Amino acid sequence: MKLVVGLGNPGKKYEGTRHNVGFDVLETLSKRHAASPPKSKFNGQLTEVGVRGEKLMLLWPHTFMNKSGNSVRPAFDFYKLTLEDVLIVCDDFNLPLAKLRLKGKGSAGGQNGLADVIQKLGSDEVPRLRVGIGPPREGADVAGYVLSNFAKAEKPEMDVCIERAASVVEDWAAYGLVHTMNQCNG
């Protein structure tokens, strides 16, 4: 069993925002694999899908982005997982729009939700799939930028990116981190 966590903020107000691409990737996986409706668990919403013989628990933390670890840690403990059985999917404004980057460890790179997960799990060796949302304009408010919607011209490219990100999650589940990193980052 593996745990895939999509980072974002709960509520209609945040749907479709740059900060919620993690939620969007989980929605895509749920639809692809005909998941049952999520249930409230671990301070979030949880459902299960089967991907190429692997059971994936999909978790949408509802703790708001900066406290995501308060949802991830209880699920991690409940399922008695190891760090390599967890994948965090999150936005990254340091990556160009629609660029994906899969890593097995490292800093949070300014992503506060990922930073909280790393802090709560006590290790930076947590696999993560970063989804590029593009950089804010120079001098722009970063918080306002990540909470904004994608421009109409960006939407088609991001829709394709979300589908690709869901495929990367499936490959990670089936083939492991190193193989999938070589495919995704190459």
Write the layout of secondary structure elements.
Elements: E1 2-6, H1 21-32, E2 39-41, E3 44-51, E4 54-61, H2 69-78, E5 86-92, E6 100-103, H3 112-121, E7 128-132, H4 142-146, H5 155-175, H6 177-185
Parallel strand pairs: 1-4, 1-5, 5-7
Antiparallel strand pairs: 2-3, 3-4, 6-7
Helix pairs in contact: 1-5, 2-3, 5-6
Enzyme class: hydrolase
Site (Stabilizes the basic form of H active site to accept a proton): 91
Family: Belongs to the PTH family.
Relevant terms:
single chain; 186 residues; alpha/beta; Rossmann fold; 7-stranded mixed sheet; 6 helices; 36% helix
What's a quick, concise take on this entry?
This protein is of the alpha/beta class. The protein contains 6 helices and 7 strands; from the N terminus they run βαβββαββαβααα.
Relative strand content: 15-25%
Low-confidence segments: none
Query: How many separate helices?
Result: 6
| Name of the CATH homologous superfamily | Peptidyl-tRNA hydrolase
Can you name the CATH architecture? 3-Layer(aba) Sandwich
* SS-based class: alpha/beta
Number of domains: 1
- The fold-level CATH name is Rossmann fold
CATH class: Alpha Beta
Mean pLDDT: 97
N- to C-terminal separation? 27 Å
Give the overall form. Answer: globular
- Major sheet attributes: 7 strands, mixed
The number of strands is 7
Helix-strand topology string: EHEEEHEEHEHHH
Helical content band: 25-40%
Radius of gyration, in Å, reads 15 Å
Strand arrangement, major sheet = 2-3-4-1-5-7-6
EC number: 3.1.1.29
Binding site for tRNA: 14, 64, 66, 112
GO biological process, one term: protein quality control for misfolded or incompletely synthesized proteins
Site (Discriminates between blocked and unblocked aminoacyl-tRNA): 9
